[in-house]
Design goal:
With about 425 residues, the chain is of the alpha/beta class. About 40% of the residues lie in helices and about 15% in strands. It has two domains: about 10-75 and about 330-425, Alpha-Beta Complex (Aspartate Aminotransferase, domain 1); about 85-330, Aspartate Aminotransferase, domain 2 (3-Layer(aba) Sandwich), CATH 3.40.640. The chain has a seven-stranded mixed beta sheet, sandwiched between helices. Strands 1-2-3-13 form a four-stranded mixed beta sheet. Strand 14 (about 390-395) and strand 15 form a beta hairpin. Helix 4 (about 85-95) runs antiparallel to helix 12 (about 315-330), helix 5 runs parallel beside helix 12 and helix 13 (about 330-350) runs parallel beside helix 15 (about 410-425). It is globular, with a radius of gyration of 22 Å. It binds pyridoxal-5'-phosphate. Keywords: Amino-acid biosynthesis, Aminotransferase, Proline biosynthesis, Pyridoxal phosphate, Transferase.
């Protein structure tokens, strides 16, 4: 596959020298200070101020270049400034950007049809952020429970997993087990049962006549790229079928090519009742999320019960339809599977040399750093100094998720930088 990643040898070497020579920065400190001064401190970003990007590479305000190994938490699966996606956005910008759902626009049906077909489902409900897709699934499953399954009013229950990450709304954090996400934001929304991830017996025990949905990430991203035991997702599918419960797969981070398949749940040959999609669906350009499901589920919603001013807007649909076209080629999934093997082979060699465990699938890895050596944050900072941007999670884990357009050479370069960071030691 041809990629639009920067592949020119000279340009790239210059870029790497640029990172190595990164000493006298000019604009970065002031830009960081201004951001610190004028924004709430709800994030703790690495001290880099990005101004431009193409493919797997970003350039900061002082001209230093870095390999992006986070990809906007997988929102940039197709790389920065993918020419096809940018062209679709530009073309739509000149024509029509917003109608609200009070009217229908000419990009709507095509996007919804192509996404529904990609998912093998009857229909989709488009929203904007991932959290909104999750909220949509919660509302739909409850309404389905009352109107179809016959659950008694106000009794609907949803089973979720420990260490989940499904977003930041007050309802979603009500079933988070992460104190940072949850503490001091109560009172919490009732109606959720939390069970250990990967434990089928726990799900079986949690399901009762009021259970309307089991909501899971097929791979838990924020928790550290945790892959459940083989057979788990298939077992959940069987339990949901047995008890007439909806199975929703939150593929917002794991989906759309990231793991080497269109959906991470495909690795187990499982089809959920609802796919929750976001992040890469917007091509790294606009927030686009959606729930895809069959008519007997999404059809429970009636006009006026749910919606969003921006959900399914013309710009989002034009970009989203192009994302679906890219996924239909299968090239990104193939690339992620092939390069993913190279990534994991390289990372596995580091086990015992500063790395204690590696998890993941495709171009997605959670790398547990030996806590005696360094924290995940320290590793991320040192990688940054060597021109690779990655993000830590939960103390000692570093997440690696390059855009799927990354080249073999770039991948090897990033692996060499990680090895160098670990060899240097604390
Ligand atoms: C699995 C999963 N679900 C939901 C979300 C929330 O998406 P958003 O930040 O777009 O609301 C995220 C974000 O990281 C996620 O990883």
């Amino acid at each position: 596959m041809t990629t639009h990643a920067v592949t020119d040898r000279t340009e790239r070497s210059e870029g790497r020298e640029g990172t190595a020579e990164a000493t006298q920065s000019m604009r970065t400190p002031a830009a960081l200070a201004d951001a610190e001064r004028w924004t709430a401190h709800n994030y703790h970003p690495l001290p880099v101020v990005i101004a431009e990007a193409e493919g797997a590479w970003v350039t900061d305000v002082d001209g230093r270049r870095y390999l992006d190994f986070l990809s906007g938490y997988s929102a940039l699966n197709f790389g920065h400034s993918h020419p096809g996606l940018i062209a679709a956005a530009h073309a739509q910008l000149d024509k029509l950007t917003l109608t609200s759902r009070a009217f229908v626009h000419d990009q709507f049906a095509e996007f919804c049809q192509s996404l529904a077909q990609l998912c093998g489902k009857d229909m989709v409900l488009p929203m904007n952020t991932g959290a909104e897709a999750v909220e949509t699934a919660i509302k739909v499953s409850r309404a389905w429970g009352y109107r179809v399954k016959g659950v008694a009013a106000e009794r609907a229950n949803i089973v979720v997993a420990e260490n989940n990450f499904h977003g930041r709304t007050t309802t979603i954090i009500s079933f988070s087990t992460d104190p940072d996400a949850r503490n001091d934001f109560g009172p919490y929304t009732p109606g959720f049962t939390i069970v250990p991830y990967g434990d089928l017996d726990a799900i079986a025990a949690a399901i009762d006549e009021n259970t309307v949905m089991v909501l899971l990430e097929p791979i838990q991203g924020e928790a550290g790229v945790l892959v459940p035991p083989a057979g788990y997702l298939a077992g959940v599918r069987a339990l949901c079928d047995q008890h007439n419960v909806l199975f929703a797969a939150d593929e917002i981070q794991s989906g759309l090519g990231r793991t080497g398949r269109t959906f991470a749940i495909e690795h187990e040959g499982v089809v959920p009742d609802m796919y929750l999609l976001g992040k890469a669906l917007g091509g790294g350009i606009v927030p686009v999320s959606a729930v895809a499901a069959n008519r007997d589920i999404l059809g429970v919603l009636r006009p006026g019960e749910h919606g969003s001013t921006f959900g399914g807007n013309p710009l989002a649909c034009a970009v989203g339809a192009e994302v679906v076209r890219l996924l239909r080629t299968g090239e990104f999934q193939k690339r992620s599977a092939e390069l993913g093997e190279r990534l994991h082979a390289g990372l596995n060699k580091l086990i015992g040399h500063g790395v204690v465990a590696v998890r993941g699938r495709g171009l997605w890895a959670g790398v547990d750093i030996d806590p005696a050596l360094m924290t995940g944050r320290q590793v991320s900072e040192r990688l940054m100094a060597r021109g690779v941007l990655a993000k830590d999670t939960h103390g000692s884990t570093v997440r690696l998720a390059p855009p799927l357009v990354v080249t073999e050479e770039d991948l090897d370069h990033a692996l060499a930088q990680l090895e160098a960071v670990l060899t240097e030691g604390a």
